Amino acid sequence: MVNSLSVQITLEKPVTNADRTFYQLRKDIVEGVIPAGSKLSETELSTKYEVSRAVIREGINRLAACHLVERKANIGAKVVSLTPEGLIQLYQVREALEGMAARLAARHMSDEEVASLQGLLDSHFNKVKDAQLYYQEAGDVDFHYRIVTGSKNSHLISVLIDGLYHLVRMYRVQLGMAGPRVTTAFDEHRHIVNAIANRDEELAEMLMRRHILYSKNNIENKLSATPT
Amino acid sequence: MVNSLSVQITLEKPVTNADRTFYQLRKDIVEGVIPAGSKLSETELSTKYEVSRAVIREGINRLAACHLVERKANIGAKVVSLTPEGLIQLYQVREALEGMAARLAARHMSDEEVASLQGLLDSHFNKVKDAQLYYQEAGDVDFHYRIVTGSKNSHLISVLIDGLYHLVRMYRVQLGMAGPRVTTAFDEHRHIVNAIANRDEELAEMLMRRHILYSKNNIENKLSATPT
DNA sequence: TTAGTGGTTATTGTCGACAAAGTGGTGTTA
DNA sequence: TAACACCACTTTGTCGACAATAACCACTAA
């Protein structure tokens, strides 16, 4: 329950060495251990992670497919340098995709899943009163994760879970945005779940889009306030 | 003008051997030269395409990232077996993403781009009267391609152009859907462009979503009519 | 001084071979 | 006969070495 966040991320079990290395690389990049803009030397990484260069190469290729690094032929790969505009664009895509996810979740989630989701919100509500910071990071991700998987649309799920969410996390870490909008976001989550419970596809999509749009506006304000 | 379709697909120039092999593999898979469901043997392909196994491996990995093949560790990769449900899900994602693309295109396309897009529709209009089949295949792709790039959102562009569109083409080839809905689709295109020219984001998104929804419904009817 | 040129070095691209895991068939036993 | 264990074989995973390309630096000439 507490570690449902880690469960969702670690859902993909590494079976081969290349898998493990890829997950480790992704983790280090997303969390900033490997800083943004830095170059990924294959030989250097191969000694550092104690695997062959081929394994590192495969990892870098997979990272490039996720748009976490940019690879140029015969030159090398760099961790993507993030711009505020890029983050805004990312939220535009999220708005479209997660709006559709909410619509499909209202259509396809089972009653049990909806009930479980409501239970999740209840447990979050208790934590919001105590430690607000915890809610934002884990709870928000958890909530969105459930909606997306509830859509039962595999393409939607993979684009968001395997792709965009890692990018968003990376942007947030790099730009230093911890956990804003706690209480109001919670109310928005509640309304979205209510719409899903009522099987109101139209409303669920609209509320989800607004929810993400608010987050985007919030970020825009933060960015313009601190012109680093 | 005539080959603007090929231009857009071939926009990505292969520089390395692995690139060339990947593009060739993708082409062969999308066009059905390598049939759906068939296994991709690394050794076999390496002799067939006259490159090393490592090059083939990289290609397969990139194909897996596009969801054109499914790879299982220590077992191998198979060309994705396509289900009608998968195609429906794909169109749901398209509806969300291209709807947003139309909205952003209405916001960000330059007046020159809009004028050029209108010119494209005019040239299509002439061809529709003569050879209808041509329009559907190239023209429709071309139209959507311009809207997507007009959004100026790099994430949106890459997900659609590099990812979903190849999948859609493959599904269409495999399920044998050539070119339906020619004339009505043309009118829908016209209305979408008008909305963009008027900078009416809301309407542009709505019309694009309807346009794709109609295509989806059309496909659903075709699929239920021919229960192969 | 600066622009251009040549060679040197480091990095990536490609390859073939070995290691490890899975698959299929054969034989044995309950 | 059916189920299980074992063995051989095929295929993928991993590795180190070689080839090709690009970046760097020194050198020359205007």
Describe this structure in words.
Two copies of one chain form a homodimer. In chain A, helix 5 (84-108) runs parallel beside helix 9. Chain A has helices at 4-9, 17-30, 42-48, 53-65, 84-108, 111-130, 132-150, 154-174, 182-197, 201-225; strands at 39-40, 69-72, 76-79. Chain A has a three-stranded antiparallel sheet. The first copy, chain A, is built from ten helices and three strands. In chain A, strand 2 (69-72) and strand 3 form a beta hairpin. Chain A is mainly alpha-helical. The radius of gyration of chain A is 19 Å and the shape is globular. Chain A folds into two domains: 4-79, Orthogonal Bundle (Arc Repressor Mutant, subunit A), CATH 1.10.10; 84-225, Up-down Bundle (Four Helix Bundle (Hemerythrin (Met), subunit A)). At the A-B interface, helix 4, helix 5 and helix 8 of A face helix 4, helix 5 and helix 8 of B. The structure holds a DNA duplex (30 and 30 nucleotides).
Q: Give the mean pLDDT of chain A.
A: 88
Instruction: Kindly report the oligomeric state of this protein.
Output: homodimer
The tally of structural domains of chain A comes to: 2
What is the percent of helical residues of chain A?
Answer: over 70%
Distance between the termini of chain A: 38 Å
> How many β-strands of chain A, per DSSP?
3
CATH H level of the largest domain in chain A: which superfamily?
GntR ligand-binding domain-like
Q: Specify the CATH architecture of the largest domain in chain A.
A: Up-down Bundle
Number of helices of chain A: 10
Biggest chain pair interface: A-B, 32 and 32 residues
Q: H/E series of chain A, N to C?
A: HHEHHEEHHHHHH
For the record, the CATH class of the largest domain in chain A is: Mainly Alpha
- Structural class by SSE content of chain A: mainly alpha
Topology-level CATH name of the largest domain in chain A = Four Helix Bundle (Hemerythrin (Met), subunit A)
- The global form of chain A is globular
Question: Strands of the largest sheet of chain A, in order across it?
Answer: 1-3-2
Radius of gyration of chain A: 19 Å
The main β sheet of chain A shows up as: 3 strands, antiparallel
Proportion of residues in β-strands of chain A: under 5%
Report low-confidence residues of chain A grouped into runs of 5 or more.
1-10
